[in-house]
Task: structure prediction
Amino acid sequence: MGDKRRPGKAARRGVVRAEVISVGTELLLGQIVDTNAAYLAQELSRLGIHVYRRTTVGDNPTRIRQALREALRRAEVVILTGGLGPTQDDVTAQAVADALGRGLRLHGASAEHVREVVRRRGLTPLECHLKQAMIPQGARAVPNPVGTAPGFLLREGDRLVAALPGPPGEMRATAAGVFASLRRRAGAGVIHSRVLKFAGIGESWLEERLADLVASQTNPTIAFLAGPGEVHVRVTASAPSLGQANRLLAGVCREIVGRAEEHLFGEDEDTLESVVGRLLKEQNRTLAVAESCTGGLIGERITRVPGSSVYFVGGVVSYSNALKERLLGVRKSLLRRHGAVSAEVARAMAAGVVEATGSDLGVAVTGIAGPSGGTRAKPVGLTYTALAGPDGVRCEEHRLGGTRTDIQYRASQAALDMIRTELTKHRP
Ligand code: ATP
Result:
């Protein structure tokens, strides 16, 4: 194979090229989504290693062998995930060994680890369990602190091959063990990104505001990612060190934020619900929800955040007029005059949930999620979001698009962003 591995243009420029091979028939059948490859691609670019290709193969030794041999002709680093388990269809270690003309050996410390984990589960270690401790000759085992099968890392000429277990938690834990070796190999610098997250605006609005920055971008680069009810801007810098990349990012991010500050809700791992939670906690305030068209989604999203019971007192999911009257104190006359989907009723629901629960803030949503139930005057997607607090009650009207699920999610975004905006006003 050596003659076929002449360095290409990229290698001559000092770029380290990587390929990821995901092994698993369930991936090919679409029964699970390949989150491992996405994770590895992101982490490798942080190390300054460029992922040039991703391949998916089933649990088939011949195709794993072929995929690995082909990848090794093109890339300096090849990472496989999946197929390291104890069952018959877990064939990755054997296929890697065969592709490289090596045998398999039992790795003593890994075998001991496998025995221990199996015993801890109340089982007797069997031959098939120990199969997980078989790694190719010359490979280094990468300990798997959260599962049984270790990963492994080997050098093949000037190439590096790593194999990691399939379960995402185990893959991440073992990947950490190979990144140190890859960092040494990369040496060429890092590619680092920051993601700025905006709500309450559309992608085109933001693109227009940033048009000149996008037109002149070189390093860092700017990319837009639109999701339901929010827009992300990923800013990516390439630099010799993380510190230098961060400095490049800071300048561009400051400029972007300055153009749309009122709509920026967070960065990287932040979500609207986590940001709202953080602000409520900081300001020592409590929140209750009254939901009609979102069916509890706002409450569910707020309580996804660990520790939310400190600030979330609870909520009312009220679809019938009777419940709106009884639990939220919405007047019958209001419902009759304006209908359940109206600004007046949304305001009354928000004020009512504050009254009923004693919370500092109350948010309410009423709307038509569809697909049926719309009229010319009140079409599908019409929603009213109201927020009640010490300064009174505010209400917004939105005309949301998409399926029933999209409309419900967008309505929950609008409600969470309304809370965020209110709390940001009060920030010291
Ligand atoms: P096990 O010991 O569980 O058999 P393994 O290394 O053999 O581990 P697989 O059998 O290939 O891994 O996969 C186990 C499970 O891990 C899959 O059923 C799937 O839920 C998850 N998984 C595997 N590969 C991926 C992937 N690329 N992305 C996301 N999840 C994955």
